[in-house]
Design goal:
The protein is mostly helical and 174 residues long. The chain is 49% helix and 8% strand.
């Protein structure tokens, strides 16, 4: 009855659709399917920084530029950035759930699924995990204002326009 912990992260929302990368999740689901592991506990965690970094990259990507592939230089640059102050770090947990409970809710037995059905279930489980992360993610003031400026089709906006958009966004997020 040994217990082991495996920790992995969904890609950032800036990457391609995060759920398209279910490899690590599928590996863990396969272990349950094969009887090597009894159950899995999913602990959705959102980590939000109070200040943004890589703002230049965000802006370029918002304007349609492709996300640059990471290389040794970019990793070193990021490591230097992490030593700087980025404000508060907010860690929020989504609703934890056991795989066995989720399977019961859906009326599914993993060992009864063919490969296509199993892949579909891995995607569905991935969406559930990501949704729990999204529900627990804090929307910081800087992120909200940045979103409004990046979503604006024209350059800049008036203070009145910003206030109007903020009012709408705040009603949306409540």
């Amino acid at each position: 009855n040994a217990t082991a912990t495996t920790e992995f992260y969904t890609p950032s929302l800036r990457d391609a659709l995060p759920i398209s990368k279910t490899g690590l999740l599928a590996i863990n689901l396969t272990a349950v399917r094969n009887g090597d592991v009894k159950d899995l506990l999913f602990v959705p965690l959102s980590i939000v920084y109070g200040k943004l970094f890589e703002t230049g990259a965000y802006l370029s990507e918002a304007e349609g530029a492709a996300k640059k592939k990471e290389n040794a230089r970019s990793v070193l640059k990021t490591a230097r950035l992490l030593g700087k102050h980025f404000g508060k770090v907010y860690m929020n947990f989504g609703k934890m759930f056991l795989l066995s409970d989720y399977l019961s809710e859906l009326g599914i037995q993993l060992d009864q699924l063919n490969d296509k059905e199993f892949k579909g279930f891995a995607n569905k489980a991935g969406y559930r995990i990501v949704r729990e992360i999204q529900k627990s993610t804090l929307v910081t003031p800087i992120a909200l204002v940045s979103l409004l400026f990046l979503a604006n089709v024209r350059r800049g906006m008036t203070l009145g326009g910003l206030r109007m958009r903020l009012d709408y966004a705040l009603r949306f997020f409540q």
